[in-house]
Write a structure and sequence with these properties.
Blueprint lengths: L6 E5 L15 H6 L1 H7 L3 E4 L27 H13 L3 E6 L9 H5 L6 E2 L19 E4 L4 E4 L14 H17 L3 E4 L27 H4 L12 H12 L3 E4 L9 H4 L4 E3 L1 H5 L4 H12 L2 E2 L2 E2 L1 E4 L8 H5 L4 H9 L4 E5 L55 H5 L5 H11 L8 E2 L7 E5 L2 E6 L5 E2 L5 E5 L5 E2 L2 E2 L3 E6 L2
Parallel strand pairs: 1-2, 1-13, 2-3, 3-7, 7-8, 8-9, 9-12, 12-13
Antiparallel strand pairs: 4-6, 5-6, 10-11, 14-15, 15-16, 16-21, 17-20, 18-21, 19-20
Helix pairs in contact: 5-7, 12-14
Bound molecules: alpha-D-glucopyranose.
Alpha-D-glucopyranose binds next to loops.
């Protein structure tokens, strides 16, 4: 059974803990750091891809779905990590990348018909679909004289989920890891799984998409290149292969369009929250919209405010708001995702030059800062990306400080199960966000003014000591009150 109000900790394996001095994080390193997760009180961890990969998309270009990349260890190391995680009460989710493989996956050569091919149109790409990272979603293959589809990088050809052999192969992958004992999957880019079978152009947009897009994408309805109405059948098959494992979907669609996905997956990442400015009115309308969409077990949203793609909470909302943002993330009902390092307020860094990721996401992926040493305790070698500022923030220093951000995360995670399932917005002073969770009131003040709380009650938690005084909340502060 998936825990109520679960907190899932996202581990980016390259950047969590290196155990062998090669400068890249690995599975044994993760195993050695499980104390940190247990201390935080999280219920589960999600590992971004650990499979063999030529790293065109840092692991999201998979060339063998049933092995571990040697840089991270072996299947034996994975089994050992899983066993220890389970012993310690932590569930483990893997990242399943079903939409595309690496162009170096043997399938691309051995089973070209498992991919999506088309002939040129007027000497150019077959249609107007664009890749997530910009430019046409089609590349020409000299050898075959045809174009292949890639919704992401050209090194990531899209699989054809209308081919039953592809479906069988991917179901086999799901069963492989479940057979080893994993508890579920984060399913990557699942809105890209099924496209228009006739590969027709995306028509012009007639209404806003509902989530940020590049300017050229926003002009199109994106109704043929993704999210085809047939998606239900593919999802039903995935659900059948996965049994009752926990499935969280990465679906880049606004919550109003989640329903077909929620019939089969447990929860969907709420990117509306991630993109929302840290300001009461917008947050309130996003929370109302996303919590209204119900899934198999209540709230269909999986809360997320940062990850390896979209950057760090603290950088986006400002250091002033780090504590109040933590209170928001951890007091929303249902399953919440916490990206490694956010619990100590890690910020984005400079990335690398030349970049590893052509889409500019290196800056979200700097290593965990465990202690104040120059490489933050991440590695004894030369880190693949340097830590940003371990001397300024690190786990060791914050673990011993009851007033640290890390201590606030621990308190929030401990409080969370007691908040129950329901959420009701509460009217509050302009600028303040407030909602009821059972007997509790959560008040969040993202402004730089002191604001009155909408009700009085005993403070159960404050974002910082003294945040709540005379029924008013300090600027950029938050509190949970018992009011019932
Ligand atoms: C998802 C991943 C991202 C990757 C993309 C293509 O959005 O989170 O990192 O680039 O899928 O697999």
């Amino acid at each position: 059974m998936w825990p109520d109000q679960a907190v899932v900790y996202q581990i980016y394996p390259r950047s969590f803990q290196d155990s062998n001095g090669d400068g890249v994080g690995d599975l044994s390193g993760i195993r050695s750091r499980l104390d940190h997760l247990v201390g935080l009180g999280v219920d589960a961890l999600w590992l971004s891809p650990i499979y063999p990969s030529p790293l065109a998309d840092l692991g999201y270009d998979v060339c063998d779905y049933t092995d571990v990349d040697r840089v991270y260890g072996t299947l034996g190391d994975f089994d050992a990590l899983l066993a220890v995680a389970h012993e310690r009460g932590l569930r483990v989710l893997l990242d399943m990348v079903p939409c595309h493989t690496s162009i170096e996956h043997p399938w691309f050569r051995e089973h070209p018909d498992w991919y999506i091919w088309a002939d040129a149109r007027d000497g150019g790409p077959p249609n107007n679909w664009s890749s997530t990272f910009g430019g046409s979603a089609w590349s020409f293959d000299e050898e075959r004289g045809r174009w292949y589809l890639h919704s992401f990088y050209p090194e990531q050809p899209d699989l054809d989920w209308r081919n039953p052999e592809v479906v069988d192969a991917m179901h086999g992958v799901l069963r492989f890891w479940l057979g080893r004992g994993v508890d579920g999957y984060r399913i990557d880019a699942i809105d890209r799984l099924l496209k228009d079978p006739e590969l027709r152009d995306d028509p012009p947009a007639t209404e806003p998409f509902g989530l940020p897009l590049r300017a050229d994408e926003a002009k199109l309805a994106l109704s043929n290149s993704r999210n085809h109405p047939d998606i239900g059948e593919a999802l039903a098959g995935i659900r059948e292969a996965a049994g009752d494992a926990f499935l969280v979907g990465e679906v880049y669609l606004p919550s109003a369009r989640w329903q077909p996905y929620l019939e089969h997956l447990d929860v969907i990442f709420a990117f509306e929250l991630l993109y929302c400015s840290f300001e009461a009115e917008s947050l309130r309308s996003v929370i109302e919209a996303t919590t209204a969409v119900r899934g198999r077990h209540g709230v269909g949203a999986a809360w997320v405010m940062s990850n390896h793609d979209f950057g760090r909470m603290v950088t986006r909302y400002g250091e002033d708001n780090a504590r109040a943002a933590a209170v928001l993330l951890l007091t929303l009902p249902g399953t919440t995702f916490l990206y490694q390092g956010d619990e100590i307020g890690q910020t984005e860094g400079p990335g690398a030059d030349p970049p590893y990721d052509r889409a500019g996401r290196d800056r979200h992926r700097h290593p965990m800062q465990w202690n104040a040493s120059p490489f933050g305790g991440f590695t004894t070698g030369k880190p693949w990306l340097p830590p940003v500022d371990p001397e300024k923030r690190n786990v060791e220093a914050q673990a011993g400080d009851p007033h640290s951000l890390l201590s606030l995360y621990r308190e929030l995670i401990a409080l969370r199960p007691g908040l129950g399932w329901d959420i009701r917005p509460v009217d509050a002073a302009p600028g303040m966000l407030a909602y009821r969770r059972g007997d509790h009131l959560v008040a969040i003040n993202p402004t730089d003014r002191r604001l009155p709380t909408p009700a009085s009650g005993a403070a159960v938690l404050e974002s910082a000591g003294g945040a709540l005084q005379s029924e008013a909340l300090a600027p950029h502060a938050a509190a949970v009150l018992r009011v019932g």
